[in-house]
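Example record used in the benchmark description.
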Amino acid sequence: MFDIIVIGGGPAGLTAAVYARRAGKSVLVIEKETFGGQITFSPKVENIPGFASISGAAFAEKLTEQAMEQGVEFECCEAKEIVDGNPKKVVTDEGTFEGKAVIVATGARHRLLGIPDEEKYIGDGISFCAVCDGAFYKGQTVAVIGGGNSALQEALLLSETSEKVYVLQNLAFFTGEQVLVSQLEEKENVEVRFETVVEEILDEDGFAGIRIRNTAKDTTEEIRADGMFVAIGLVPQNEPFRNMILLNEYGYADMDESCIGNTPGVFAAGDCRSKRIRQVTTATADGATAALAACAYIDSL
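Model output (structure tokens):
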């Protein structure tokens, strides 16, 4: 049995693990996909204190190494359920683990467009990470869907190697930072389409492009492209734990900055929690807060 089980190995979960270990608690981190979380998909991060610039993957690696050096244990499996009790049980697809307290730091996954056969092309025409897959489209044509910081960063990175980059935004303006917008406007091989949505994927023995619609003019057009990078937001991964955590209307854990929920001994941290600002710094702050709250809970038992 562990003192604390952390579900999720992103910045919030790994920070929680480090703080809990430094408080003398035994810690298990359960992660179903990639240790480091969504930041591993960011090609360049410039707003983490202490780093002028670092890739998300490199930052995630440093976090993971730090947790390992502190003595945190890891399991690569998917948490399916939290069963309340003393101790609490975390049921996974690889067995059940027991802990005195549980911190949910499951983050969020990439939001899909909701068009026909979309999932069929993931990894074979559709990607969410330019730093991971951009090299496959060197000298080719790609489309980036979205208008926030992530989409703008993806487009900037792809513009360095791809022959042509289309940026499609459903609104009439970008929602990302102006400094990124200005950098994008300087790229001669980038073409921006506002008030535009993707309606269909063109298939010619594989991904061949997309059919788009201008919502203002109600006109359609086909764009020939070799790949599409989707960056339209995230969906919280809290559904399996709604019996232990009160969720808001959007599926985020309904907790304030104390990270303390409605079930004693169950906490939430990071992007899965209801908050106004979702950044690496706020995720790590949540991790520290949740860990210390969990330690206090255990000490009170």
